[in-house]
Structures are given as structure tokens and as C-alpha cells.
Amino acid sequence: MVLGFASMAKAKPIALHVGAPFTTARAKLYAAGWRADPAAHAATGDYDGVDRLLVHAGYFEVDYCSLGKTFCVLQYIRGNACLRLHTQGEEIRLMKVERWTDDCREKWPGEGQTYFRLTSGTLRNGVKSVKTPNSVRERMPSCGV
Asked: Domain of life here (predicted)?
């Protein structure tokens, strides 16, 4: 079965296939301008099993994976559009596409707000210097091997 997905962004629909290898679907998504949601795996915390393998292999779009039959949810963004990819498989090379939606993942508390971290820097013109986080990674949990 071939289904197309069109986002609100100005791009051609993507032809994803139910049962297609995850790595093939991911390559198509990246070719069409979709990227891993940089905070997807930060939202859920600790990882075990396939989700841990995915994060360690550089698949930062993993939101979570279940145990047992190993269903995984991976989150992509393109502009303001979202794509949630559901897969099944116990090894990355064996993961297959089950379905996809245009759902956005649930945001964690305070996400999307601007955070400032006061530093102990010097005062300039009566204003304390501020520094923003370099990236979302500052708030991401460590994989811990």
C-alpha cells in the first residue's frame, strides 16, 4: 500500500510505504527536507532496548519504543509541520514502517520558551550578562553506557 503525506510546508507529498524498511523511509524524509525533532528523545527520559540503540546510533528522532514486539515512535519536523512515524522491529536494520501521522509530540513543560541563564560575568552598563543554552542538548539526558 502506498500512501502520500503532504505537510503544510511547500513541498511535494512524500510516498511512504507501510512495511518499508525504516532506514529507507528515513532517507526519503530527509531528502524531502524533514529532520529529526531535536528534542524528541529529551522528552521521555531514560532509554532501554531499541530506543537506546537508536539514540546511540544517531537517530535522535526517537521519541520512545515499547518492549515486547518493539514498536517505536519517531518524530520529525519541517518548519512548523510534524510527522510522527511508527515502526516495528527489534533491530534497527529490521525495523519496518507501520504507519505515520501529522501529529506533533507532546511538548515537555516549558518547551518553546526562551530560557536565560545568568552568568557570574561582569556588569556592563549596569546590566548583568546573560547566556542562552547552546542547544537543546544541555537539557537532554545522557545515554550512559
From this structure: Eukaryota
